[in-house]
Amino acid sequence: MIHEPADFPMRFDNINLLRAFAAIAVVVYHVIEHTNWVSFPHGGPWVIFRLGWMGVDLFFVISGFLITYSALLLYRKTPATFASNYWRRRLTRILPLYLLTMTLWIAFCWDGFFLQDTRDWVWQLFTHLTFIHSFWPETHGAIDGANWSLALEMQFYLLIALLIRWIDRTPGWLIWVIGISIAWAWRATMLVLYGHGETFTLFLHITQLPGTLDEFGAGMFLAKYVLAQRDKAINQSWRPSRQTLGWLAACLLAGYVTMKVFWAGGAYWDKAHMVIFWRTLLATALMCVLALAIYLPQVIAMRWMHPVDQLGEISYGIYLWHLFAIQFAAGISGITSLQTLVVVLALTLLAAMCSWHYMEKPIMEMAR
Asked: Alpha-carbon distance 60 to 53, whole Å?
């Protein structure tokens, strides 16, 4: 029987604040890139949006934590029915909106999808429906470009399901060390094989699941750590204030070192040490930020920053809808980059709110 600690948070609402930031950062970054927004600041606090691609890395760390944490609780509570309960929750969260946006992209954003060779459009559908479309250049990002990362997410879900017993009995630090080792070996191999070609080809191969296991692994390590702290809370030996101060210090140190190395690295893809090792630094910094969000009072999201919390709640929709909005805005003649951003944010948030309230949330509640 699992006893619930009275003073330990059962819901980590502050994570929604990070989800909101990650989703908006990706949206702004894509607007900057798609509109060639050269006047967007290259320094100061706004530069974080020029680095908005880090939002995807943050999502990977968050997924590593949340999926591992919830899967372990589910497994420890009802081992016999773990697989069915786990997949019901994961598939009802991911599939409905994924299938809807994929269908709408084919219908409205890919003219002549079914006019291409039958083998080509069948291959596109097959790889996207089986979440293996991240493996090949012709399918990677072909339908609603942001979907390439969902392939990695689903592959990670499968990994968790297959290894849940091993994950449960293995120390978190060892899981992370193994993930880092695999990621480094994979990225080094891909750099040797594809480092002299186009940057996109290298990016495609570097960011396959083996190459992102240090980021997912950081979240897995944190999940095991927080579960251990949860057990201490049950035994009334948990000190949240010490945790908060410790993670705050870790955030500042890891963040400083990570960005110091990044800015000194220059052209990222031309430096072997950056390609192979730097994302582990980034994963460490993001994990510290995530831990700080967990150990800070959850009232921050629930009351003080409730509107941002709601953006985090619909962040999956923001991620899947924003390229539709960018495509729409691109068809408006004479529109500036700033006006494009306003249009994209407005349309994206509207679509995300509608899909959350009228499809995603009802389906998830039915599944529970």
From this structure: 12
The separation between CA 329 and the C-alpha centre of its own chain, rounded to angstroms, equals: 25
Asked whether residue 2 is domain-assigned, the answer is no
Confirm whether 247 is domain-assigned.
yes
pLDDT tens for 304-319 read: 888 899 999 999 999 9
Q: Is the confidence at residue 243, as pLDDT, over 70?
A: yes
pLDDT digits (tens, 9 = 90+) for 78-113: 999 999 999 999 999 999 999 999 999 999 999 999
**CB neighbours of residue 142 within 10 Å:** 19
239: left (phi over 0), alpha (psi -120 to 50) or beta: beta
Number of domains forming the structure of the chain = 1
- Per the listing, tokens 């899947």 go with 320
Q: Is 7 a member of any domain?
A: no
Instruction: Give the chain's mean pLDDT.
Output: 93
DSSP string, 249-287: HHHHHHHHHHHHHHHHH-SGGG-HHIIIIIHHHHHHHHH
Question: In this predicted structure, what is the pLDDT of residue 26?
Answer: 97
DSSP for 91-144 reads HHHHHHHHHHHHHHHHHHTSTTGGGS-HHHHHHHHHHHHTT-GGGSTTTTTSSS
Q: Is residue 322 part of a domain?
A: yes
